[in-house]
Amino acid sequence: MTLYRNFSNVQADLSNGSLTCQQLVEQYLVRIDENRHLNAFTEVYATEARQQAEAIDQKLAAGTAGRLAGMVVGIKDVLSYTGHGVRAGSKILDNFTAQFTATAVQRLLDEDVIIIGRQNCDEFAMGSSNENSSFGPVLNAADTSRVPGGSSGGSAVAVQAGLCLASIGSDTGGSVRQPAAFCGVVGLKPTYGRISRWGLIAYASSFDCIGPIANTVDDAALLLEIMAGPDAFDSTVSSQPVSAYSQATLPDRPLRIAYLRDGIESSGVDPSIREATQAKIDALRKAGHTVEPVDISLIKYLLPTYYILTTAEASSNLSRFDGVRYGYRSLSNDTPALDLLSLYKKSRTEGFGAEVRKRILLGTFALSASYYDAYYTKAQQVRRLIRQEAEQLFEQYDFLLSPTTPTPAFRLGEKTGGSANDDPLQMYLADIFTVQANVVGYPAISIPAGTDANGLPIGIQLMAPPFAEEALVALARKM
Ligand SMILES: NC(=O)C[C@H](N)C(=O)O
């Protein structure tokens, strides 16, 4: 049976009668089973997906099916789906069952999407390699000795390996785009507030965005179109009208495209990535567009700003996981918790992994009375300056192009074990090109740009001003 790589082929075969949703689901279930070693899924909804497929086949026959009939997706383990477990890759949410469905997920279900399972990710979306999951690491299907990126690693690998047609991930600092780049697929982070965060387990609420991962820009655009728009459950969602992103076309004029000089010239960028970026620049120039180098003067403050503000927000958001209200509770008999405070302490120490504990500590420190102004206030001020610089840049340009990541997928353990332990910032540098879009709240997309000499995928990123998703996907589709 054909392995489908885009939704329009699925739709064509469903309508000419050569395919049913039930056959499609069986194919994915077999492939998921054959690829268990990749560890992309933490739970597979086999029975339910079969039932959904049967019901949608009937709707298709009756002509009443929704726009996503035949789209088989997986959802990252941070999205609530009522009656299903959701763990955020963490032991602290052991045995927790979602009590409601995320708005984004519900909108897909309303259009007859089939959800095939829940996908592995870094714990609470904190990581760039999917090595911080309590379910164990995910392997990159292009080379299983390498990481898939993170935090939506399972979601990216599931699309890469053909275990579902698309995935829904979340992106706080690159978590959709960086794994998409490492796995050779498309990852789209919309403008902050474009898609409701209701039902997304919060990491850093002023950065978090839900976003699709797919094989094609068209499929990512369609998923965005259906998930986007106002929602009474999330007051930060924009009421800006949702365009038909899947039909978007470019204006009939040469575009003004800036590219990040550091993306091409910095010695920290892998030569294969520099070449791939340069090739895209050359092609855009050949197509008649203006493509010019720019510098982001505040680039060295991007990661510090991001990690101060996100850890501060995380320390507050994660305080609800206390071992009392829900999730994991320390019941160790060797050293039992004797009072409420020690129950909190033990449950949180045992329930959270090392990276999450580290970030809660950092965030708590940044928010503490004596350091609040020195860190949190200062980082907010710098965030404002970074946004001003972006606003000025996009007064002159329609897009900003850069590599998605400085290197292709690195090896498992390369940035966590041994001497790498001495410098934990090495891992954070994997997000150097992706965090800007989150700090300023702008939309950005990573698209595949070939592979390096070892066959490892390379991704190119395009960023656009707020709510310019239409132009963003239109250009990405052409590249
Ligand atoms: N969540 C993300 O977008 C990934 C980022 N690497 C982080 O750990 O914060």
Automatic annotation (TrEMBL):
Protein keywords: ATP-binding, Ligase, Nucleotide-binding, Protein biosynthesis
Listed Gene3D superfamilies: Amidase signature (AS) domain (3.90.1300.10)
A Gene Ontology term for the protein's cellular component: glutamyl-tRNA(Gln) amidotransferase complex
Record EC number: 6.3.5.7
GO biological process, one term: translation
GO molecular function, one term: ATP binding
Statement: the UniProt record of this protein carries the keyword Transmembrane: no
Domain Amidase per the UniProt entry, residue ranges: 24-472
Transcription is among the record's keywords: no
Catalysed reaction equations from the record: L-glutamyl-tRNA(Gln) + L-glutamine + ATP + H2O = L-glutaminyl-tRNA(Gln) + L-glutamate + ADP + phosphate + H(+)
TM region positions: none
Top-level taxon of the source organism: Bacteria
InterPro entries in the record: Amidase, Amidase_dom, AS_sf, GatA
Active site (UniProt): K76 (charge relay system), S151 (charge relay system), S175 (acyl-ester intermediate)
Function noted in UniProt: Allows the formation of correctly charged Gln-tRNA(Gln) through the transamidation of misacylated Glu-tRNA(Gln) in organisms which lack glutaminyl-tRNA synthetase. The reaction takes place in the presence of glutamine and ATP through an activated gamma-phospho-Glu-tRNA(Gln).
Record note on quaternary structure: Heterotrimer of A, B and C subunits.
Family under the similarity heading: Belongs to the amidase family. GatA subfamily.
Protein name stated in the entry: Glutamyl-tRNA(Gln) amidotransferase subunit A
Source taxonomy: Bacteria, Pseudomonadati, Bacteroidota, Cytophagia, Cytophagales
Chain's gene name: gatA
